[in-house]
Amino acid sequence: MFHEKDGKIYINKQRAAEVEAITAANHELLHKITASLFNDPDKGKDLVEKFKKVLSPSEMKVVQKRIDDNYKFKRDDDGNILLDEDGKKIKTTNPLMIKNGLQLFLMR
User: How many domains does the chain have?
Assistant: First the structure.
């Protein structure tokens, strides 16, 4: 886990070994690097747009689905997508969720 407040990376070595996550440290380092880029929304959006250009249509579809499934909409404490009074899904405005969704483009 990358802890943005103190800038440190924490790895649960036992859990990483259990699930054979041999790239856990690299993954968390990438979080740290991208976090610095996404602290500036314009730089983050520019980076995402550039990266999207290198994805094939099928790759883009996979990444977009993951973002839509996990980050695009507001959820209740049980993980259910919240609906407005018209029954439409409510998009998230939480900067952390948006940031996490954008970072997915760089980690796929």
Answer: 2
